């Protein structure tokens, strides 16, 4: 195992305390710190020490795929690390978004490549993209702190009553559609996100002026304060409003509309940066493309509890083979664990101190530090007194 140094993304919604506290740095940080990336995504690759320099993990994986990935991972995913491990820390709501499935991502990327090439040939800059790569992006997020999120459509009849409570006549067609059940979800989402721009101030003003109490009204007021005149604040009422405790997780498959609101968590995903946004953001919004990839179905139970697989070891099973995530807790009761997980492996220490050993060398990590081991390593042994998350491919 060897140290892995991940970059921190400074998106405006990031926390100025969560990642700094995890890494034992001074609080508040100089600016917002939204995500710590621990992988080989070209958008922000982590780095590894080589001959006195820190080199991109992307370059190492590309140049030595057999060593880093192994034959099975290379054959299945090509010469790229198929997963990306992150620490995400939100102090403000993120965008209302969804991710494409594998077929949609491949087709969308190819179409945009063709259009970008045409634009370049005409001497014009390529338009901003929806698809930065041809890969899907299913995600699993495990809460490190109390975590708040919107995730998946709830019962549309409940959403209809929440919107009807504001008594705004303009929302009547949306309420009527939702009272028809899941078949009305597409109509409702299209109507809200496609609300005429010139009329959005008036719509949100009427909603916010209504004398309505309760968690639904509080949520709309909070989102409208962060993103004035954004109808995404009303779309939020169509989704499950979740509050996770540390150790609880949410699974976000393709086409699942979601938005993080606050908190810090460990997130693992397929190594893609394809995001289709519908609102609650100053970034690119493409409602038509978002509607094309959304799955308009009720998500019964988005929360996933950890499953114990041995003393001191939990995991969250997911129906994809791009990644798997295990949590390890070692200490007096469980001094060490051995994980026969295939490489490559990325380990993040999330508390205390742990020593990781894959047979090629032991490395001690403290909170906020990470390590990586190649596919050639032996079963991973973790000891010490602390907690860590182990990311691998999901191939078995």
Can you describe what's shown?
- The two termini are 21 Å apart.
- The chain is globular, with a radius of gyration of 22 Å.
- Strands 1, 15, 16, 17, 18, 19, 20, 21 and 22 form a nine-stranded antiparallel sheet that branches. Strands 2, 3, 6, 8, 9, 10, 11, 12 and 14 form a nine-stranded antiparallel sheet that branches.
- Helix 6 (156-164) packs antiparallel against helix 7.
- With 396 residues, the protein is an alpha+beta fold.
- The chain is 27% helix and 31% strand.
- The protein has three domains: 2-149 and 243-282, Jelly Rolls (Sandwich); 156-237, no CATH class; 307-392, Jelly Rolls (Sandwich), CATH 2.60.120.10.
- Strand 16 and strand 17 form a beta hairpin.
- Residues 121-126 have low confidence and may be disordered.
How would you classify the quaternary structure?
Answer: single chain
The largest β sheet comes out as:
9 strands, antiparallel
Number of strands: 22
Which parts are unreliable, with pLDDT below 50 for 5 consecutive residues or more?
Answer: 121-126
Share of helical residues = 25-40%
Please report the distance between the alpha carbons of the first and last residues: 21 Å
- Tell me the CATH superfamily of the largest domain: Jelly Rolls
User: Strand content of the residues, in percent?
Assistant: 25-35%
CATH fold node name of the largest domain: Jelly Rolls
Give the averaged pLDDT, no decimals: 93
CATH architecture of the largest domain: Sandwich
Q: How many discrete structural domains?
A: 3
Domain Phosphomannose isomerase type I catalytic: 7-154
Binding site for Zn(2+): 97, 99, 139, 258
GO biological process, one term: GDP-mannose biosynthetic process
Protein name: mannose-6-phosphate isomerase
């Amino acid at each position: 195992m060897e140290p892995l140094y991940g970059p921190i993304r400074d998106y405006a919604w990031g926390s100025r305390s969560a990642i700094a506290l995890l890494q034992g740095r001074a609080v508040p940080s100089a600016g917002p710190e939204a995500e710590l990336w621990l992988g080989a995504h070209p958008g922000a690759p982590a780095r590894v020490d080589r001959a006195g320099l820190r080199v991109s993990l992307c370059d190492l994986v590309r140049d030595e795929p057999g060593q880093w990935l192994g034959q099975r991972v290379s054959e299945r995913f090509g010469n790229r690390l198929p997963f990306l491990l992150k620490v995400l820390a939100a102090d403000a709501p993120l965008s209302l978004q969804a991710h494409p499935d594998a077929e949609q991502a491949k087709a969308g990327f190819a179409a945009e490549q063709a259009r970008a090439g045409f634009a370049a040939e005409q001497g014009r800059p390529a338009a901003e993209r929806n698809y930065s790569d041809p890969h899907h992006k299913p995600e699993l997020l495990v809460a490190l702190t109390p975590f708040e999120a919107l995730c998946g459509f709830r019962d549309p009849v409940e959403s209809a009553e929440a919107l009807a409570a504001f008594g705004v006549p303009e929302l009547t067609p949306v309420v009527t559609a939702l009272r028809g059940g899941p078949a009305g979800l597409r109509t409702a989402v299209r109507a809200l996100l496609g609300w005429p721009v010139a009329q959005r101030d008036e719509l949100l003003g009427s909603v916010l002026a209504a004398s309505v109490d309760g968690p639904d009204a509080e949520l709309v007021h909070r989102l409208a304060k962060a993103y004035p005149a954004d109808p995404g604040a009303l779309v939020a009422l169509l989704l499950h409003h979740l509050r996770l405790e540390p150790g609880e997780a949410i699974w976000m498959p393709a086409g699942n509309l979601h938005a993080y609101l606050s908190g810090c968590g460990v997130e693992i995903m397929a190594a893609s940066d394809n995001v289709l946004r519908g609102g609650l953001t100053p970034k690119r919004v493409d409602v038509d493309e978002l509607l094309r990839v959304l799955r308009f179905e009720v998500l019964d139970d988005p929360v996933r509890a950890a499953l114990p697989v041995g003393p001191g070891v939990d995991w969250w099973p997911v129906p994809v083979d791009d990644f798997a995530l295990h949590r390890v807790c070692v200490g007096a009761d469980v001094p060490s664990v051995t994980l026969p997980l295939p490489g490559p492996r990325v380990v993040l220490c999330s508390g205390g101190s742990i020593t990781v050993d894959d047979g090629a060398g032991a490395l001690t990590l403290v909170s906020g530090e990470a390590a990586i081991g190649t596919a050639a390593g032996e079963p991973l042994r973790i000891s010490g007194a602390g907690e860590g998350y182990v990311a691998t491919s999901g191939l078995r």
